[in-house]
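During the no-cost extension, the postdoctoral fellow (Dr. R.K.) reprocessed legacy sequence entries with the updated structure-token encoder. One reprocessed record is reproduced below for audit purposes.
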Amino acid sequence: MSEKAPAPELATAGQQPRERVLAALEAEGGVVRSGPGWESFRRRFDTHFPDLERLFEQLYGTRGDWLDHLARLVVECAASWQDRPEDLRSLDARREAEPDWFQSERMLGAVCYVDRYAGTLEGLRERIPYFRELGLTYLHLMPLFLAPEPNSDGGYAVSSYREVNPKLGTMDQLRALAAEFRANGISLVVDFIFNHTSDEHEWARRAAAGEAEFEDYYWIFPDRAMPDAYEQTVREIFPDDHPGAFVPMPDGRWVWATFHTFQWDLNYSNPAVFRAMAGEMLFLANQGVEILRMDAVAFIWKQLGTACESLPEAHLLLRAFNAVCRLAAPSLVFKSEAIVHPDEVVKYIDPAECQISYNPLEMALTWEALATRDVRLLAQALERRHNLPAGTAWVNYVRSHDDIGWTFADEDAAELGINGFEHRRFLNRFYVNRYPGSFARGVPFQDNPKTGDCRISGTTASLCGLEDGTEEAVRRILLAHSIAISTGGIPLIYLGDEVGQLNDYAYADEPGHGSDSRWVHRPHYPAARYAHRNDPWTIEGQIYAGLKKMLAVRARTPEMAGNRLIDFATGSDHVLGYQRPANDGAVVAFANFSDRAQHIAAGTLSGFAPAAEDLFTGQTVLLPDGITLPAQEFVWLRARHA
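Re-encoded structure tokens follow.
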């Protein structure tokens, strides 16, 4: 993007916004209008500018300079489009012609830390043949931008969005890697940490030095009066790191830091911040990033007297950023990360906001069902909260880089006679092996022994009990992944889980990791386990083969495309059922979470024709006989309506 283009001479204030912005573009003549692609930019401007204007006015219309900022923003979008490489413009055209590309039954996502999985970006490039073997179409690289060590919060404290951590490589290498991924059918996904920056970011340094322009990039106050007022209604996110939402600066001022002391929240009530972050976003898009994980979306707007979470303006900001991308990087997709009440999660999912979203409720309730052997909460969630607007999709996962929190709604649990508070305490005890008979080997995160409150760290294998090496643990691993792979959306694998990687209990020996137990489930590349992945006599081979078989079946099953799901009552609290519909029937999935075999009675299946096809074996299953599922087993049947 052309960063140093001079600010345009804006036309008179009496002009309408559209004419005023066009005048600004005209003033930029040589920079913008003479380059390739100008006509296509103008077409998109005609289509999308009305949305951007409306959103920008809603956010900033009370300011006398909002039109100046809007005009400069559009000029910056035009300059970014002119800088956009031709192959990415071709990608834009393909994605505009096929907007539902991410809803394919062949989509498969994965996530990893570059350094822990491959050492460097070059090392990651060398793993592309394996990614093709696994069938990846989407790879999320955990935060890789320049960040201060050891206080980087795993890379989420960004010092520069335009520089890669030098231990990993360079921005040139990331751009080349994105191109090679693209050539191999893999979309590059990175985090866009846009709620805050590191206190070592240039903007923060200049704010700390007293430069007024950059002081307005953050929430900085001279004393405790306003921080005290805000803290009447906002919650503490990491009380072990600092109480409240503000931290002191060396000169006695106070700055908003929702998460860690070294992460300063950006002030989006300032349109200059919006423009600056839009510029960083478009820069990344022009490096070949295809999907941005929008970090901490619920926190990006502040308003006195509120919790400062999931405010209406947060949605307006996301929509405005989307409108910017439609102008200058049309193929870019947003992924929502909102670990909030289930009713709030879905509010971020919209073609004009976040087109895809993590599905934290399904993830948490899969673990809940494994612990309780009871599927009622999970079945309820699939019935009520799974289906999404057209043009959007879930990202379904068994676990991520983060801890597991029990995000189900208390009111949903109460309908089933479950006390939400007590149930969370049970789940916490179960998954950190403080409950009799627990198979799990999780580690508490932010443990409070007095209240029983904590969240859960651990790899999939360790949480499923694989440290004991039992067959049941293997079955649990595959059962959990079967839900993420078949319920609809993009299945996401944390790389290493497909070969059963275990907890890394040496995490505390690494600088900066000792106080954060989440590093227990971020192990280094498990080379020995990968070496055994094709040996069916090993545990690694059994897990890998099981996942590969599931993914192969999904990829050849058109009913698995999209997101639509219909619930199916199995008549058993231990057996989950759901349908992926087709015109003349459905793929029906059954998953037994019990430690014993369970039978689904013939009468429960009477709505289907007598014969169904087992998609794993190709054999005919006679539904009038009912179905018996062994412990921790699942089946996908193609059934026709009776």
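The first helix runs from residue 17 to 27. Confidence is low (pLDDT under 50) at residues 1-14. The remaining legacy entries will be reprocessed before the final report is submitted.
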